[in-house]
Amino acid sequence: MKFAPKLLSALLMAQCALVFAKGNADTIFYGGPILTVNAKNEEVQALAVQNGKIVAVGSKDAVTKEWQADNTKVVDLKGQTLMPGFIEPHTHLILTTMFERLWLNLSNYALPQSSIESIVQKLKAELKNVPKGGWLTAFGVDPSRTTPFMAELTANDLDKVSTEVPILVVNTSGHIAYANHKALEIAGITNKTPNPKGGGVFVKDKDGNLTGKLVEAPAFLPFVALMPAPSQSQLVDAILATLNSVAAKGITSATEISVGGNFGVDKEAALWRGIFANKASPIRIRGYLFSDNLPAGYNNIKPNEGDDYLRFIGIKYVSDGSLQGLTGALNEPYIYPKGTKERGSLDYKDAEIYGLMKPYYDQGWQIAIHANGDRAIEQTLNNYEKLLTSGGNSKDRRLRIEHFTVSTEAQVKRTVKLGVIPGFTIGHVDYWGETFHNQILGPERAKRIDPAGDFKRAGGRFSLHSDSPVTPIGPLNYISEEVTRLWQLPPQKVLGPDQAVSVDDAIRAVTINPAYSMFADNIVGSLEVGKQADLVVLAKNPRITPPAEIRNIKVMGTYIDGKPIALK
Question: Over the stretch 10-19, which tens digit does the pLDDT of each residue have?
Fold first, then answer.
């Protein structure tokens, strides 16, 4: 049946009137600054919500006159600030749950730094909690933040804790682990065992003996596979505790960037589906399948499968390691140890990683590649350019580069030209800035890490993330660090002031930009009519707070679909 244009217009207007009936908002917020983060960065007085969506933003008088009814709930902000819920585009949520809630957490982001002896003592204290037949597992040691500098655990160090209980300790970077001799024995790893594919290394000393150090996931995931797994209920309860802690930071949407990295893709996808089927998650999740654990020809999950609460949208690859772990792939050598020729290494040859990505790209999956060093970034850009010019549906693919830590100006311009979106682990500046500058990279490369300033000048988008459990989750902290670029170690200095951006730019990097990178900017990331009412209430307005103090602003409330999340 065909309708005349005027009749069709009338029908559409009537339909909109039914969906958004004026004078009947569920909730209206006013009484404090409301940061829309729209294209004009407008600040308004009031916002109305109906059926989970934003139906009005503007002046208090206009919004209340048109939308307030007797049953409308009115939230007086009392001078507090309302803004879009934060978007966290790169977290390992299950891994964070395991490392921070089910394993011994040795992470130390404060001062003073740890020592090998203090780490050994903490492991010894934990030994009594290991059940018979269990493993002692821990996370969070970091040689670049250990005294003496770059002191690493060895199998012999861990044997001081126990020679009977298998021990595995994962480095803060997530790219290195350490095992005692009992763990090596149980895993069947000997001096003659070849290195696994995908960049894994069983490190040996100059005499060819295993040191206990394991580089990249292919080398230490076999150990994890041998450990007693937590029960389903234990794991779900722990994940929900993590998600609630994430919501308490004002985050309303996050990624699980490596679905399948721990227990296999199908099992973890089913785990997430179960959580959302029970409406247990306080936040939205977008999932990226972990390439290392994808069986050849995998198609059990289709691109973009799910809904606006849980959706699987991408495939995540790892092209190099960690800069603080000296395994990120650089064009020029590290400066530690003095005189080294070590440049890190690529996990795949160019053709190899392209061959892995191409079938999934052709299926319509978004691709996200971890690339810390400029050599890995160059490889990634080369392959992305090939993908984008390979034919098929190449429009608006929003390819991602995760971390993008050490780069060149030419790479930044090329990234913008290709429409590729970088995400920066801005905690690199905070926790490792001094170390990169003075001991690992040298001043010239260090001052350009996480080059937000270059991307802003080139007209590109960028986002900020934690890479949790690598650094702590906290978008307000990311804003502070992106604007000030102060490193933590005294005496504090600014690392690359020309890479700093404004508070408004940093706010966009934790709201609308990551929403765009996750194909969610149509529903979240800014406060605009028609979008979901995912909101955060802050005690202070970050736009007028001294940048170094933004990280200390208290989150007063987090809302999904206009409904408050019970923060725990």
Answer: 444 444 444 4
